[in-house]
Amino acid sequence: MGIRFTEEYPEVNGAFSMEVEKILFRGKSPFQTIEVIETKGFGRVLLIDDLVMLTERDEFVYHEMIAHVPLYVHPNPGSVLVIGGGDGGTVREIVKHPEVEKVILVDIDRMVSEVSMEYLPSVASKLLSEKVICQYEDGVAYVKNTAERFDVIIIDSTDPISVGEGLFTREFYRNCYNILNPDGLLVAQAESPAYMADIVQGISHKLHAVFPKVHFYQAHIPSYPSGHWLFAFASKQYHPLKDYREEKYHQHALKLKYYNSDLHFAAFALPNFVKEIVHVE
Ligand code: AG3
């Protein structure tokens, strides 16, 4: 057995490990340690502070689900804000929607985009799309201070530790609410119900305190803790299923690897233990 990268899962005293062929990049930004490794099983893998951010093998699941679910509910998503997501995977999916005129990406760490452009071009290259404006600053301050207004906000953050922490607070969600148009909606990556029930519950409580409609949906992402992942859908008006624009999905006829219209409905059907976690009295 050669060198291995192991992500520890302290919540369950477990771990996930893969064999490393080569370390392609390792660097420290002012915010975090960034690495790109080459593996046999998962292709290239982006690590931040020793956590798996994405692998070439399964990043399509996460990026399709975080982008297409909200964009096929909002009837006319002209303006989209992405907080985090400096690797560009979420932006790559968003720009597949012709209705989207403008995407602002706000990531605290420019190095994530630079490294992704160099080592993960299939993920990052749409950061250069003319519809996309990249701003490297703190997302927490951005949503507090910006005069821009958005139809959709997508929070593509890391775990709620270090630079990610401020993206999981009630004040942050309140500021997102304030910069959404009157029919706006937000989707946030929401961690694993199998391993991080407390975090998921916290997200649910805080979003319910701010948004009238909050729902959770799930996807299977093998390289993330437990492989069972959630996304939060928080909305001012639209319901994720009753307002689903299925006809638009069929008209677009995008070639996607995970998301489809059956799955849009299925993803919101939650196991009982997950319903209990996200349930708010
Ligand atoms: N966002 C990171 C999801 C959290 C992964 N957590 C972990 N491995 N412990 C992914 C960014 C991809 N655009």
Topology:
Layout lengths: L3 E6 L4 E15 L4 E7 L3 E6 L2 E5 L3 H13 L7 E6 L4 H6 L7 E6 L2 H10 L1 H4 L7 E5 L2 H7 L4 E7 L13 H9 L1 E10 L7 H14 L2 E8 L7 E8 L10 H7 L8 H7 L4 H7 L3
Parallel strand pairs: 6-7, 6-9, 7-8, 9-10
Antiparallel strand pairs: 1-2, 2-3, 3-4, 4-5, 10-12, 11-12
Helix pairs in contact: 6-7
The structure holds 1-{4-[(3-aminopropyl)amino]butyl}guanidine (AG3).
The site of 1-{4-[(3-aminopropyl)amino]butyl}guanidine has 15 residues, from strand 5 and helix 2.
Polypeptide structure, described:
This protein folds into two domains: 4-55, Spermidine Synthase, Chain: A, domain 2 (Roll), CATH 2.30.140.10; 59-278, Vaccinia Virus protein VP39 (Rossmann fold, 3-Layer(aba) Sandwich), CATH 3.40.50. The protein has a seven-stranded mixed sheet with strand order 8-7-6-9-10-12-11, sandwiched between helices. The model has no long low-confidence stretch (mean pLDDT 97). It has helices at residues 59-71, 89-94, 110-119, 121-124, 139-145, 170-178, 197-210, 246-252, 261-267, 272-278, and strands spanning 4-9, 14-28, 33-39, 43-48, 51-55, 79-84, 102-107, 132-136, 150-156, 180-189, 213-220, 228-235. It has 281 residues and is of the alpha/beta class. The radius of gyration is 18 Å and the shape is globular. 30% of the residues lie in helices and 32% in strands.
